Amino acid sequence: MDPQAIAQLADQVVKALQPVILSFFQSAAVEAGRRAAGAAWESLAELWEKLRSRSRVEEAAQELAGRPDDPDAQAALRLAVRKALEADPALAEQVAGIMGRPQVVSYIKTGDVKGARITGVQTKPGENKNIYSKVETNNVTDSTITGVDLTGEE
User: Per-residue pLDDT tens for 122-154?
Assistant: First the structure.
């Protein structure tokens, strides 16, 4: 894998793990992480297990769990992941395979819908390539139901 592809993969990994990173360190947060990630939880947990033992990845992830909005903590994890992927091409291929699975998962189930707008996932074109969205409703009147809403420009 070329260096640019590895850097992009590391960025994707950090973006995918960040919403649930705390749940990997605090047992009380595991169930919340499972709910937040939905069907993507198994892929994220598998990804974490492959990366956590690599040099500095777990340390950087713990730092990010404590400061999730800190861009320096995000960059530190991204760098640690990138170095791990560069050092182990087989790991990079395994991680690329995991990241190829749906990472944005949305499931909405409602009863009757009238005069509403329901969107499973709203994203920009090209921003999220691995999306699974399912919206189930009963009777729909005067409403807009969208599984994936692409807004903005690529």
Answer: 666 666 556 656 666 777 777 676 666 666 554
What would the DSSP string read from start to end of 3-21?
Answer: HHHHHHHHHHHHHHHGGGG
- Are the C-beta atoms of 72 and 120 separated by less than 8 Å? no
Entry field: residues in the chain: 154
Give the tokens for residue 82. 């990138």
Find residue 140's DSSP bridge partners.
113
Helix (H, G, I), strand (E, B) or coil at 118: strand
Instruction: Kindly state the percentage of the chain with pLDDT values over 90.
Output: 23
d(CA 39, CA 80) in angstroms, rounded, equals 26
CA distance 94 to 78: 17
CA distance linking residue 80 with residue 10, whole number of Å = 9
- The closest alpha carbon to 143, from 98, 102, 110, 101, belongs to 110
Q: What's the pLDDT at 147?
A: 64
